[in-house]
Design goal:
The protein is mainly beta. The chain is built from no helices and 16 strands. It is 0% helix and 52% strand.
Length: 190
């Protein structure tokens, strides 16, 4: 890959620094009088999910990374590995380290996930923006204890714990944002 100039780093760019593949989230170029310009960049490490802020200068060497997006179907996760398969060939199973999957505790079996790949190597798996999950356990709703809408913790089919309104019961299907784990709405009553 060709090295990138520090002014080429823009949101949506993938680059490699210190051996890690990073996605640029935000970039602000600034130049003060009589000083060389700098690029204040926020980047997300695709393997760990950590967000870092770095100031880039003309002397910094940044390597561009071309990542390809491919869709897979999530099968299951066990111990320290996740199993996926290409959408068109369910018999071809691929095992990947669990660290490469973002928010794995919210991905149900059969969900479509997007893989960012460098060649044949899967760098990270991204879940859909929202998923529909079935509530398996929910404490009973007790009215009268709140002045506004109350909340409670429920357990969903993946084993994750989600904060929902009091009216959610076991068997209901709810929609959850995978980035934050927040309840958004009830899809179907159980």
């Amino acid at each position: 890959m060709a090295p990138l100039d520090y002014t080429d780093i823009q949101p949506g760019t993938y680059c490699k620094m210190d051996g890690a593949i990073l996605e640029v989230i935000a970039a602000t170029f600034s130049k003060k009088s009589r000083q060389k310009g700098s690029n204040q960049v926020r980047m997300k490490n695709l393997s760990t999910g950590a967000v870092i802020t770095k100031t880039l200068h003309a002397s910094d060497k940044i390597e561009e990374v071309i990542l390809e997006k491919r869709e897979y179907q999530f099968v299951y996760a066990r111990n320290d590995e996740a199993v996926i398969h290409p959408k068109d060939t369910p018999s071809e199973r691929i095992t990947i380290p669990i660290e490469t999957v973002q928010n794995i505790h919210l991905i149900p079996s059969g969900a479509t996930v997007t893989a960012l790949q460098e060649g044949d190597t899967i760098v990270t798996l991204q879940p859909p923006i929202k998923v529909d999950l079935t509530v398996t356990e929910a404490p009973p709703s007790i009215r009268g204890n709140t002045t506004q809408g109350g909340t409670k913790k429920v357990t969903v089919e993946t084993g994750a714990s989600i904060t929902t309104p009091l009216f959610i019961e076991a068997g209901d299907r709810i929609r959850v944002k995978t980035a934050t784990g927040e309840y958004t709405e009830r899809v179907a009553k159980g």
